[in-house]
Amino acid sequence: MTRTVYVNGEYMPETEATVSIFDRGFLFADGVYEVTSVIGGKLLDFDGHAVRLQRSLDELEMKNPISKEDLLEVHRELVRTNEIEEGLVYLQITRGAADRDFAYPGDDVEPTIVLFTQAKPGLANSPKAKEGMKVISIEDQRWGRRDIKTVQLLYPSMGKMAAKAAGADDAWMVEDGHVTEGTSNNAYIVKGNTIVTRQLSNDILHGITRAAVLRFAKEAQMNVEERAFTLQEAQAADEAFITSASTFVMPVVEIDGQAVGTGAPGSVAARLREIYLDESLKTAI
Amino acid sequence: MTRTVYVNGEYMPETEATVSIFDRGFLFADGVYEVTSVIGGKLLDFDGHAVRLQRSLDELEMKNPISKEDLLEVHRELVRTNEIEEGLVYLQITRGAADRDFAYPGDDVEPTIVLFTQAKPGLANSPKAKEGMKVISIEDQRWGRRDIKTVQLLYPSMGKMAAKAAGADDAWMVEDGHVTEGTSNNAYIVKGNTIVTRQLSNDILHGITRAAVLRFAKEAQMNVEERAFTLQEAQAADEAFITSASTFVMPVVEIDGQAVGTGAPGSVAARLREIYLDESLKTAI
């Protein structure tokens, strides 16, 4: 099936969806993005993504070409048209097309906005949630502003390939001896009754799912510590897991070939996944 | 005038030149580039750029969609068609278009190749070469593989804007107290009879102009030291300058508001610029 996508105000078949070779997203990675999950044809945590999108744009002094209301309508229209029951809506905004220059173009240049869907049948019931993921560790070589959700994703992409080559599912990135995050997700460990995840800073993405999961964990009377942890601490933990908009909560059962806890998905991750899906679906729109 | 550009084997007007919204250059900054200068309608150091392009592709396990001979012919054809006497040819290769996935697509996906020209009348006789540039310093927040010439250029772009906002021409990036390079150029200082520039590593781009200028400097019996230098050392130097394919050799006369040497362009930079242009033109093709 040919998807319908959205580019700069128009809906069109994906085969016709293009941007100029002068788009700064293409030439300078001068763009930001968001990915919103769809379950039961509804958007999870749309507000959270819209707020973070605005923050990314503000940090880069980039114009927002669309109101939140219109953005929601485009999301919904793409979900409807492409008949997405379970899947994702991807959104990217760049600084627009202008002749190549490191300096930003003038205010007359309009941002580029692109949205498309990806159908992911079985997203909520992923078998990985029962099996658990294997991760390897790699050095975190990304730029210093990981709090801005830019399309500078080559290193995470290289990390994913390194993981695949090692027979693993993903890579956790390590800087100065401490885990920052996964290639496209936040990282957690559980020791005793405490959930540990790195505190917010420019070193990691401020995950929308992270914020929700921590809120639900606290509401469920779990202890949460927001601090950096080492790889050794993670390997010696009772459980490990990740969160992201597209994986929700996903257990990690092996780090660099070493089993975490019993080597099977843990109960805390399973419970948080269940709570997250239940609660998010209540507010899905 | 509408430029003729080159996209995936075809010449076309720039207004029609597009890439898919699924191009990995647009979605993941999964692409590399080169910029070659044109003087008198001829390409400077084409071979050097072709060799570095292949190295960048190899480092990223990316296919090269074009032979060196064909690449040269496309460069020449664009220079001819667009009547470029002085200017640049920009080349970008990405991993191609595929549905969004952090993992690289299969071998059936062909790379995207884009080339376009930029006319820069007066490039060789730039008034800046007589005035000198002012630079500010900023922290180097780029990723760890700056030796690969990728399109992850958002931070250099932000640095250029910070420089403009401060009334300067460019920014020198500083890491662990030492200058790495400019936003799109290599950085040098001169103290006594010695030219100092940072040694090659993953921390800086392996400049094609850098290699040529150092060769010419040694041939002219100048002392060259390849080592890291501090900002304070630069401010206390007799001269400072940059090199890049599009600026050749350009004097720096002010760093963070402090004059370098006399505050006027120095004789070493002037001499190196002259030698570089003379020698490069001899082998231009």
Please describe the topology of this protein:
The structure is a homodimer of 285-residue chains.
Chain A: E1 4-7, E2 10-13, E3 18-20, H1 24-28, E4 31-39, E5 42-43, H2 46-59, H3 68-81, E6 87-94, E7 112-119, H4 128-131, E8 133-139, H5 154-165, E9 170-175, E10 178-182, E11 186-191, E12 194-197, H6 208-219, E13 223-226, H7 231-235, E14 239-244, E15 248-255, E16 258-259, H8 267-283
Notes on the protein architecture:
The first copy, chain A, is of the alpha+beta class and 285 residues long. Chain A folds into 2 domains: 4-119, Aminotransferase class 4, branched-chain amino acid transferase, N-terminal domain (D-amino Acid Aminotransferase, Chain A, domain 1), CATH 3.30.470; 128-283, D-amino Acid Aminotransferase, Chain A, domain 2. Chain A contains 8 helices and 16 strands. Chain A has helices at 24-28, 46-59, 68-81, 128-131, 154-165, 208-219, 231-235, 267-283, and strands spanning 4-7, 10-13, 18-20, 31-39, 42-43, 87-94, 112-119, 133-139, 170-175, 178-182, 186-191, 194-197, 223-226, 239-244, 248-255, 258-259. In chain A, strands 8, 9, 10, 11, 12, 13, 14, 15 and 16 form a 9-stranded mixed sheet that branches. The model of chain A has no long low-confidence stretch (mean pLDDT 97). At the A-B interface, β3, α1, β6, β7 and α5 of A face β3, α1, β6, β7 and α5 of B.
